[in-house]
Amino acid sequence: MSSYWNAHPNFVHNPAAPLQQEFNRLADQNGWDPDKAQYKREWKRCGQEEFAHHFGRDENRLAGWQAMCATVGVKEVPESIKQCKQVLRTTWINIFDLLDAKRTGRPVKKHASAKALREYTKREDKIFPKKDAKKNRFLKAWLIKMF
To answer: Which stretch of DSSP H or E encloses residue 68?
Structure first.
């Protein structure tokens, strides 16, 4: 279990449930209003911690890159970080959907293009904070221009 959920001992976390569904249950339990800063701050922290839990924090570890490749369904997982990055740059997926695939075991939703991903991400309001993603080379590999 990730440290995010450990910080909420009175919450019974389901690690196989979609991330946003679990976070919304926690928010309801704690009375966090989705329009308030605390909800947004916690949602951001939840996404960051969940990503680190599944893929690590050290972007220089091949295992994290290979885990991302495997999660998105790459049949032959590359043997180097550079090769993993090349594969992932042309795989259009939402970061939160990547986390849900890891959590639920269901295939990750793939998009045909950056444009299709952008439209989906905005429509579903699944925007990972750009500032935080840029600090993490794992996440930076997934960034696309949103606005």
So the answer is: helix 62-71
Q: How confident is the model at residue 146 (pLDDT cuts 50, 70, 90)?
A: low
Q: What is the pTM of this model?
A: 0.85
Residue 133 pLDDT more than 60? yes
As given in the structure block, the two tokens for residue 1 are 């279990």
**CA atoms of 81 and 137, how far apart (whole Å):** 11
- HSE of 48, CA atoms in CB hemisphere, 13 A: 15
User: How far is Cα 47 from Cα 53, in angstroms, rounded to an integer?
Assistant: 10
Q: If 0-12 CB within 10 Å is exposed, 13-18 middle and 19+ buried, where does residue 127 land? A: middle
